[in-house]
Amino acid sequence: MSTQRHRQPDNNDALAAFVAAKAEIDTMLKRLSAFSDDHFDVAPDDVTWGHVGNLGHVLERLRQASDFIFQEGDCAG
Question: Where exactly are the structural domains of the chain?
């Protein structure tokens, strides 16, 4: 009768990829926050409907990411 040891899978590669992805997300969030604090580099008197449309596009993408992460909206259930 042979006995086999069940090895715990080595997750070092997965952990490294996870940490790298998290660092990239953190960098993006910091940049987005700083850009938002600067009113997306648009002076109030210069806002056009084009800016509104661009911001709406960004909002939709961020909403999709948020819904996915928190299982809300279209990703609920």
Answer: 17-75
Asked if 35 and 27 touch (Cβ cutoff 8 Å), the reply is no
Q: How far is CA 50 from the centre of its chain?
A: 24
pLDDT digits (tens, 9 = 90+) for 30-71: 999 999 999 999 999 999 999 999 999 999 999 999 999 999
Q: Residue 25 carries which side chain, given as an amino acid letter?
A: I
Distance CA 16, CA 21 (A): 9
Give the pTM: 0.76
